[in-house]
Design a protein that fits this description.
By secondary structure, this protein is an alpha+beta fold. Helix content is 29%, strand content 28%. Strands 4-3-10-9-8-7 form a six-stranded mixed β-sheet.
Length: 214
C-alpha cells in the first residue's frame, strides 16, 4: 500500500506544478515519508528571444492602429498599469493622459473628448476622442512603413527626451519616418512604445510620439 501512495503523491504534485507555471513547484517524499516542496527552475528567456517577441508585438500594434482596430490595440495594454500617451518626446507624468485598460476599452467606444496635452508653439490645448487622437496624432503617418529600432533612438529634435528617466530599465521600440527633402527633413516623425513584462507576456505601458518642435 505504501508503494502505491508515493507514486500517487508524485502524480498530484506534477498536476499542481502544471497549474502554477509562474512559480512551478514539485512535491517529493523522503525516506521517512515526509513531503517536501521544491521550486522547479524555469529556463530564462534569452535576449534574442525577447527581442523577437517585442518586435512581433510592435508590428502587431502598428497593424492594429493602421486598421483602426482599437479593440485589438487594447489587448496590448498592460492589465495592471494601464497606458500613458505623450504627445511629444517629453513625458509629463502629471499632465499626460493615462488610462487603465478597462477605461480605455470603455471610452474608446464613445464620443467623450479628452485633453491630451498642448500643441507645441501655440500652446493650444489638444482635445479629441480616443479614436481621433489615435488616428490623427498617434498614427498620423503610416508607421508600418518606418525604420524600426529596439532600445535605440533614431529621431530627435530640440524637445527634451526623458523616456529613459521616466521608464528606467524598460525596453522600448521606435518606429521612425524620415523627413522629406521638401521640408528640409524637418517633417520627420517617430512613434515609440514602452514595454513591461507581466505573467510571461510583454505589454505596452506608454505610447510616445515625437517630431520636430520649435
Amino acid at each position: 500500500m505504501k508503494k502505491l501512495f508515493i507514486p500517487l503523491l508524485l502524480i498530484i504534485s506534477l498536476v499542481a506544478c502544471k497549474k502554477n507555471t509562474a512559480n512551478p513547484t514539485i512535491n517529493t517524499t523522503d525516506s521517512a515519508g515526509h513531503v517536501k516542496t521544491d521550486t522547479v527552475a524555469v529556463p530564462k528567456m534569452s535576449e534574442a528571444e525577447k527581442k523577437d517577441i517585442i518586435k512581433k508585438t510592435n508590428d502587431e500594434i502598428l497593424q492594429a492602429l493602421k486598421n483602426k482596430d482599437y479593440q485589438k490595440f487594447s489587448e496590448f495594454i498592460h492589465p495592471q498599469k494601464g497606458i500613458r500617451f505623450s504627445m511629444y518626446a517629453f513625458v509629463d507624468i502629471k499632465d499626460d493622459k493615462h488610462f487603465s485598460k478597462a477605461d480605455f476599452e470603455k471610452y474608446v467606444q464613445t464620443k467623450t473628448q479628452f485633453t491630451w496635452g498642448s500643441h507645441d508653439g501655440s500652446g493650444e490645448l489638444y482635445k479629441e476622442t480616443i479614436k481621433d487622437y489615435l488616428e490623427k496624432w498617434v498614427f498620423s503617418k503610416d508607421f508600418t512603413h518606418s525604420t524600426y529600432s529596439f532600445n535605440e533612438f533614431q529621431g530627435g529634435g530640440n524637445s527634451l527626451n526623458n523616456l529613459k528617466e521616466i521608464y528606467p530599465g524598460h525596453d522600448f521600440t521606435e518606429n521612425y519616418i524620415k523627413g522629406t527633402e521638401k521640408y528640409g527633413e524637418m517633417d520627420w516623425k517617430t512613434l515609440r512604445f514602452v514595454y513591461e513584462e507581466f505573467e510571461g507576456k510583454y505589454y505596452i505601458i506608454a505610447v510616445i510620439n515625437d517630431q520636430w518642435t520649435v
